[in-house]
UniProtKB/TrEMBL annotation:
It comes from the Bacteria. InterPro entries: Biofilm_reg_signaling (IPR052155), EAL_dom (IPR001633), EAL_sf (IPR035919), GAF (IPR003018), GAF-like_dom_sf (IPR029016), GGDEF_dom (IPR000160), Nucleotide_cyclase (IPR029787), PAC (IPR001610). Residues 343-388 form the PAS domain. Residues 639-893 form the EAL domain. NCBIfam families: GGDEF, sensory_box. The lineage of its organism: Bacteria, Pseudomonadati, Pseudomonadota, Gammaproteobacteria, Pseudomonadales. This is EAL domain-containing protein.
Amino acid sequence: MKSHPDATNRAVAEVVTQLPVPSRLGLMRFERLNEASWALLFLDPACERSIGLPASELCGFLDAPFASLMEPQVRYSLHDEVQRQLAEHRHYSIHYTLHSPNGPLRLLEIGEAFQQHGRQLLRGYLVIPGGVDEPRAAQKGLDLEAQNSYLRSSLARYQRAQEDHVQHLVRSQAQQSLIVRLARHRYTSSDPAQEAARLISQAASEAYDVARSGIWLLEGSQLSAISLYRRDQAHFEQPLSVDISLYPRYLEALHSGRAIDASDALSDPRTRELADTYLKPEGVSAMLDASIRIGGEVVGVLCLEHTGASRVWQTDEIAFAGELADQFAQVLVNQQRRHATSALHLFQRAVEQSASAFLLVDRDGLVEYVNPSFTAITQYSAEEVHGRRLSELPALENFSDLLFDTGSGLAACNSWQGEFRSRRKNLEPYWGQLSISKVFGEGGELTHYIGIYEDVTQSKLAQQRIEKLAYSDNLTGLGNRPYFIRTLEERFQSDRETPLCLLLVDIDNFKRINDSLGHQTGDKLLVSLARRLRNSLSPSGVLARFASNEFAVLLDGADLESGQQIAGQVLKTLDKPLFVDNQLISVTGSLGLACAPVHGRDPQTLMKHAGLALHKAKANGKHQVQLFTEVLNAEASYKLFVENNLRRALAQNELEVFYQPKLCLKTAKLLGMEALLRWHHPDKGMISPDQFISVAEETGMIIPIGKWVIREACRMSHRLQSAGLGQLQVAINLSPKQFSDPDLVGSIAAILDEEQLPPAQLELELTEGLLLEATDDTRHQLNCLKDLGVTLAMDDFGTGYSSLSYLKKFPIDVIKIDRSFIKDIPENQDDKEITSAVIAMAHKLKLKVVAEGIETPAQLGFLRRQQCDVGQGYLFDKPIAGQQLLQYLGRYPSRAGA
């Protein structure tokens, strides 16, 4: 132990810790936690001579055995005193009393604080004052007065012994009479244990002349009173249950001994932990508790509680309490036996009347018992099967294999559950659900087998019908998506090395067929396609209808080369017209192909890659076979990245609008600009629209993004007008997906109103795809936009289908000649003639013409000669960021006065 000497004042603790053999001087070393629990980590073994308990019992964290020898309130106040002294000095000294088995023991504790492994500890010595040099009580003689006193005390002891003997005889007679009474008593109530408990508790309180007597039963950690008689009030009461785990010393004494005879219950180590919660509130001073045991296990306790002065329990009283406890234990045993007999009869009736078949077979396979349900299921009577071997009965052949086959599940386990198929006596097949278990004897040896089963034939057939419905397509009769997935998973579980190909087939433009010919014709077409695909595949191929117009094909054993060959054959098969509802219908298909193990070693990966390949085939124009490549995986990953980041981009102002000037080709004055969206990602840098607009359209994010772009463009137009650049018109591209927003027209009108921009200064550019598939709702929205006063322009004119028809159907104001016609002018004569024709036609229809992609003076000169109205392109300016726009536009002649 480390000490801290001080030249002027050395503490007692610092001196004694340097003594060579402290135990010889009556000092006991200790270490404990610096806590009010007083939990000891170490105590000098010499403590057993002074305290009466070994150090191993006093050192322990559970229940704080050393602290239990002290008064709790004294212990807490002493802990506070120790902290006060340590705050002032490096040591402390306190006095306190231990209630040891040898009686009260006055101790002096001196020590110091230290820290070990992050814990605050105390160490020092316990000193028993006067314990070093005890005086020897030796007298050399007795005087006459002492002799007379000794004779008088001997006479008094003799008289008390005679009185005790008489009282013992009286008690013995009362005890014998009570035992005989209890033995002859006939219990008539429905609860003999309750009746016996009331009888014993009342009789015991009278025989022992105690205030209270009760019988408590132990159930887990709860001690519940079955009967508690108060002799002082002459009635029974029902107290609350007691959590016996809170009193470990009492519980240990109850298990380790026959009885607890606490003459002074408040100070007895076995019962004093009950003092505050039970003894003091009830005024109990002495207790005699006898454990009630069945088979050596404590199941309850007989409690005799004495109030008033302390009471010494006589030996015969302690023994008689044990006999009373045994009497009640016998009542419990008899009651359990009756309950067991009753339960056995009830079990026999339940087995006889059960709808399940019961079968008891000995270890050699001889049938010992079957119930009536067994006869109802198998048509074999009990007499036909009793004493016969299972192997001799056709209906039970499967049982014999299950019991005695070394490869069965029952050979290694004690029970088995499952379905089996067998035959009745009339050879009719049936399905059974069986649960069979081994039965072991007292010595652990196998004696019997017990089987319980029921006829599940109808439910099995129903399950098969349900499974067929669940895994088949009602329209085509093929397997459905769950069936195909299950088949694919089973294939991978059985064999992961043999190659296989997964082919996803999508019928192109099937929605048009449904819309034009009707769903009934569409369904008949799918049935014909399914039949044609089934006939074109080998018998080993698995074909399923995966979705509305999508089929899946599993080509087992096909490698990459043969898979591509079969995919090409399927594509040609689909190209052949089909005759449905008296009309010839031509369809095409898009196919995605993935092969295992090259493109995936599990069902999920293979299906994902085949889906990516199909998606790519449709995106590339349909009517083709696309083999999966890692490039498709990268594209899908990038698409997922864009989708996950795009919503955040709008919220965190990562999107930015660039503007490309639009000039009058006749005067070279600035007329307006086209708003172009850009995405400035914090990690990826600037992302162009063609890399994220399609994802925004698929996810629906294009609707809020489009509104944001319109508002930003309106604000910029208003800002430029305030800067003196005139009323510049701003053009914005509208995605077809934005027309799915029913509030499109209302939101644009609201933005124009809020930003105070005249509708004529906003131009909306429409794609030919929108006009090609326009619905009545789309036409209505376009007319409403026209009524609002905005300008409508057709973007990329000349690149789609039936472009001229749009000019009659829709309220178009402007057409934009696609850059693909401008880039090869003047070298390409065809482009020059097409461009000239478009400009002339537009002017005849009183439409304005905008040429985009002007990059050379020659292109500009040609367009001017053809009297094209407006132009934009790199010859004038690239798209300009919004914060730089005002600076760049200053160099153009404006139309402020227009």
